[in-house]
Every structure is written in C-alpha cells, then in structure tokens.
Amino acid sequence: MESTRIWSVGWRAGVTGRRWAEGHVCRTCQQGIQRRRYAVATAAVESSPVSHDEHSTVLQSSTTVPDFRVKAGILLARAPLLTRDLTPFEKSFYFYQRRLNERLALPFTRYFYFKKGTPADLEWKRKMKDRRTAARDIGLYNAYRSESWNDELLVGAKESEIEHVVDALITDAESTGSTEEQVGERKKDKVDRPQPRQTEADRRGDLTSLNRRLDRTLYLVAEQPEGRWSLPSSDLRPRENLYQAAERLLVHSGGINMNTWVVGRVPVGHCTYHHFPPESGRNNPSEPTSSDITFFMKVRIMAGQPDLAANRLGLLSYRWLCKEEIQSHVNPWYWSNIKNMLADR
How much is the pTM? Predict the structure, then answer.
C-alpha cells in the first residue's frame, strides 16, 4: 500500500509537470503546486520508520537533568527623591553659564527689564548698591574696569559651591537695599533656608529608614532565618503566576502597611542556585541534585514601612540599601546574579 501511494504521488507530479510545461496551469496554481512538492518531500522523510533500538540508545546516552524549583522574588525599590551631587566639572560649567548670562545682559539698559519709576525699578536701584553687580550669586564684577577681562574661575573658588550660592541668594532676598535710617522699625523679611541634602537618618546611620540617601535608589534586603541577607522570595504556588506571587509576597513579608505597586508583569531578572550532594566539593565535583530558580518582579514603594512582626517567611530584620551597600551584605555568588538588576544611582 505504501509503495502504491508513493507511485501515485509521483504520477500526479509527472502529470502536473507536463501540464505546467504546456501552459495549462495558471501562475497561482503553479505556486501552490511548488509548495505542495515540499510538503510531499517532507511527508516522505517523516514516513521513514525509526527503529526502537536507536530511540532507546538516544535516551540512554542523555545526561540526567536536575529538578528545578521555581520561586518568585520581589525587587522592592524606592526611587531617588533628589538629583545627584554635581561633579567639580559640572559645578564649573554651570558657574560659567551663569557668568556668561550676566555678560550678555550687561549691554542692555535696566529700563529694558524694568519700567522707569516703578517699584521694581526702585528696588533694583537699592539692591545694586549692595550687589555692585547684576547677578546675585556669582560674586562681584565690573565690566568697565581695566581688569574686567580677568574673571576666570579659579580651582577651588567658593563661588561655584552650592552652599555659597544658597547663602548669596538668601542674603539678597532678605536685603531691602535701604539703610537703617530708611528702614526704621520695619523688620526684614525672613526667608526659609532649603532643607539639607543629608537627613537625620544619614547622620544617625539608620539603615531601616527610607529617609536616607535621597539621591540614590534604595532596595529592601531581608535577613533570612539562616542568617544570610537576600531579596525577599518564596516558592511559587500551583496555578499562580509571577505577578500574583509578587503581590502575595509583599503582604507575607512586609505586611499591609506599605503603599506599593508592581511594575509590569515580566520579571527583571533571575537567580539560580544549585544544590550539590554533601560529598561534593572542589576536589570531588559532581552534578547538582536539584536547583532553585528565582524570578524577580520589580516593585515600587511610595510610603509606609515593612512590619516583620507577623511575616510568614521567618524574616529576622530588614534594611534599605543602595547598590554598593548590598554588595557588602550578600554572598558573592548571589551578588553576581542580582547586580545587573540594580540601578547605579
């Protein structure tokens, strides 16, 4: 029967070839026949019998694949609240830009900016006596003196430091430009100073506070029952996806007092840990008996703090750490698996 079928297919292909050559087949049918030829060839290859002995040999030669236990983890992060500190080059560049802006503004008369006789014009006249320059935070400068060309910023000059700029702006805002006799009993307007970049938690070294390292991304790292530090994780339950596992893990590890949201439904990375038999070692290597693979979901926290009083994972403590601090807390093999998931700032 098999030989009859193959002969029939060959006869049809021959007849079709003759019709094709005679021009009785349209172009669309020709393309379909060409595709069917490949299908016939594939069916002929697949119909070749495979002996059971060869199949058994392939299965016996394959290596034993270790069992994998899938786990879900959370990469709970607090985004930076402040911009990073400027480098010395950036400080000098922005200071140069402010000075350049003042130089370009000097050729214009002040009446280009303030209408003559208005309160703004009078205040400008009073403050110019104290400033002796148009700018408020870049130091004194006189464009009409003989040394006006010599205004380059020297290395280590205080004018480019943020603290000096803040003090100069506050002093100018509080100044009225009037003498004591003109002011009389009128009090100066009190201007609030901006909050420092270093918080009280930074000064105390409190690693459990979210109000530290405001210019860096902080990640939640928990202490496991066996004493090692890692990102929170747990086994994936049956019929549970990674997104559902991340939401469950947030409640089981940190409680309900955190305002969080899971970013996306795709993991940002994974970590694989292999379990070896007790007799395995550097001098006696062996194949792993089982492995744990943990997929981490990215989570953001907006407010709140973890509460480990009733956590179901047995966590002992937690810390909010940046990338460099995490490296000093976790094992080297664990750090090599998670370091590319962490932000540099």
Answer: 0.69
